[in-house]
Design brief:
21% strand, globular, binds zinc ion, alpha/beta, CNF1/YfiH-like putative cysteine hydrolases, 7 helices, 6-stranded mixed β-sheet, metal-binding
């Protein structure tokens, strides 16, 4: 059972989900997998409206549609996935917002696109699983870039502890400031959240300590740390999780 947003669940005619390690694509979205837009995420701010199945989008870190039956998703492994739906279920969007995208203004870009013929106040937003402030240690210079680049956000929100960034809190502040009043946060850290059966199952039944905890999400950071210790450890290539949604046809 993958994570979901109560706010989006309450919208009739929209199905969504946040994938995890056990279901990179949430089971509930698989019937539409072939319709996914084909895009290359580059930690930028370009958001592409789509209207055709499997549309070629080039480089894009966000997608937006009003077409029923088109699955939108973003792939993440520590970056922040954001899902959006209009309350009437007629229009949806998805953004890939890591630290680069947040700093560069992908949320403001999306709000600006909507504001041309719509109002963010008509929408709900959901913040998915991402590197949490519990684990997301970064350089002092990156923290400084955030504090200087986003002076409108209180420092205690940007960096709740020394050299930590709180991507979800930054996103929530920006969403509210950009006119989205209704924001859910799944609240899962991709680096440390354990899956439901973590450590509880000892298949051999011999009482031996399990090999290690079972993590719920693919994490670029955790994988990098493992590979630093053991260079033969497999990369996360092809194992990023989808956060996606579709307007039911
Ligand atoms: Zn954590």
């Amino acid at each position: 059972m993958t994570a979901s947003s109560p706010l989006i669940n309450a919208i009739a005619g929209v199905r969504h989900g946040f994938g995890d390690k056990s279901q990179l694509m949430p089971e509930t979205l698989r019937p539409w997998q072939d319709t996914l837009a084909i895009k290359k995420q580059v930690h930028g701010t370009h958001i592409r409206p789509v209207s055709m199945p499997a549309e070629q989008c080039g480089q894009a870190d966000g997608v937006l549609t009003a077409t029923p039956g088109l699955l939108l998703s973003v792939l993440t492994a520590d970056c922040l996935p954001l899902l959006f739906a209009r309350r009437d279920g007629k229009r949806i969007g998805a953004l890939h917002a890591g630290w680069r995208g947040l700093l560069a203004g992908i949320i403001e870009e999306f709000a600006g696109m909507l504001s041309k013929d719509d109002d963010p106040a008509n929408w709900v937003a959901a913040i998915g699983p991402a590197a949490g402030p519990c684990c997301y240690e970064v350089s002092e210079s990156l923290v400084e870039n955030f504090l200087q680049g986003l002076p409108m956000i209180p420092a205690t929100i940007v960096t709740p502890a020394h050299r930590r960034l709180d991507l979800a809190a930054i996103a929530r502040f920006k969403l509210n400031a950009a006119g989205f009043p209704a924001v859910d946060d799944i609240g899962h850290c991709t680096i440390c959240t354990l899956s439901g059966t973590a450590g509880a199952v000892n298949a051999a039944g011999d009482g031996a300590t399990p090999a290690g905890p079972a993590f719920a999400y693919t994490s670029f950071r955790r994988n990098s740390l493992q590979r630093a210790v053991d260079p033969t450890y497999p990369t996360i290539s092809g194992r990023n999780q989808h956060a996606g949604l579709v307007i039911l046809p």
